[in-house]
């Protein structure tokens, strides 16, 4: 693992991270991260706090979000780094998607009730400080004694084949890319591995997203071995896209067993010229880092 001066993929309590946005920034400062993007799942709720903390800690904090898109057989997440003045239309659309997520989680709670699993909406709200998702429903099921672990809750009730599963009203990948790109964002395909495609199919998928306005592929990640990083970078290059770098940090408590450590990337990480190209296209980022 190498320390990185730029970390464009981190989570806070505004979604499923363990640290408050200001604490994420303080940790980044400790690790000498110079440019940090807060990218919580489907919310900009932590960004103002993080940007304020960034001014105190001398860290460039960028406005980011990780959009979940509709995708079968894996996960499709898109990182969007936005201008500091986020267009009102984009904010409104994100708020609307958050509302839909709440309605959907409520529906799952109702379905659980009809099959005799007694959980209240308040039980779910208590564990969700930001956008609500199945991990929160799973945690509430564990706390209410209905499941031994979150994984158990997914396996028995809310996994895609589970009796209480309700699909979320997510955007299609191309629509998500368009929405963010039209708001002035640079958009990157997060952790391509979770699409569960071979490299040829992945290249095809990336090509379609590129036509919709995708700008980058997250090739350099905390948890990806060097040969995978190189393969993703090749796919990005095939479509004339940038590569992005980020840890996907969620929690310091997990850092011992989780390679997603704030400010660290496995292997050689992003090349200096690729980093310069990325910085030059990132809204609100310094044009270059002193080396
Ligand atoms: P949602 O977007 O609300 O449908 O929640 C999806 C999230 O649930 C994913 O990002 C994972 O973090 C988590 N998840 C999905 N499947 C499982 C599983 N079988 N066990 C534990 N967590 C899961
Ligand atoms: Fe997450
Ligand atoms: Fe993700
Ligand atoms: Zn993430």
Helix content: 40-55%
Strand residues, percent:
15-25%
Taking pLDDT < 50 over at least 5 consecutive residues as the criterion, the unreliable ranges are none
Q: Which series of helices and strands comes N to C?
A: EEHEHEEHHHHHEHEHEEH
The count of helical stretches stands at 10
Number of strands: 9
Detailed description of the structure:
With 291 residues, this protein is an alpha/beta fold. Helix content is 42%, strand content 16%. The protein contains 10 helices and 9 strands. The protein has helices at residues 21-30, 47-57, 88-114, 121-127, 134-143, 150-158, 173-182, 199-212, 226-238, 272-281, and strands at 2-3, 6-10, 35-41, 60-69, 76-82, 186-189, 216-221, 242-246, 264-265. The strands form 2 sheets. It has a 7-stranded mixed beta sheet with strand order 2-3-4-5-6-7-8. Strands 1-9 form a two-stranded antiparallel ribbon. Helix 2 (47-57) links the parallel strand 3 (35-41) and strand 4. Helix 5 (134-143) crosses helix 6 and helix 8 crosses helix 9. It is globular. It binds adenosine monophosphate, fe (iii) ion (2 copies) and zinc ion (ZN).
